[in-house]
Amino acid sequence: MREEYDISHLNPRKNLYTNRLKKQITINIDNETIDYFKAQSEKVGLPYQTLINLYLADCASNHRTLQMSWN
Fold it and tell me: How far, rounded to the nearest angstrom, does the alpha carbon of residue 10 sit from its chain's CA centroid?
């Protein structure tokens, strides 16, 4: 193994996934919601955290707004 390598002639490529970076957060989600996404994850074969992320990303990309009514 060399002590030093010359990388000046390498062709650096832009990382295609930098626009999809994720940030780890802490969020409180009730047990029923987690159970729902875990059940869905077993049906589709994706981790439940990925499903939650996909759902939230869909809401954000479609500019969905929360509509609640307290009865």
Answer: 31
Query: Residue 51's closest CA among 64, 41, 36, 39?
Result: 41
CA distance 56 to 25: 14
Cα 27 to chain centroid distance, Å, stands at: 14
pTM of the entire predicted model:
0.67
The secondary structure of residue 3, as a DSSP letter, is S
Tens of pLDDT, residue by residue over 33-50, are 999 999 999 999 999 999
Q: How far apart are CA 34 and CA 32, in angstroms?
A: 5
CA 47, 52, 56 angle in degrees (round to 5)?
Answer: 150
Name 58's Cβ contacts closer than 8 Å, sequence gap at least 6: 64
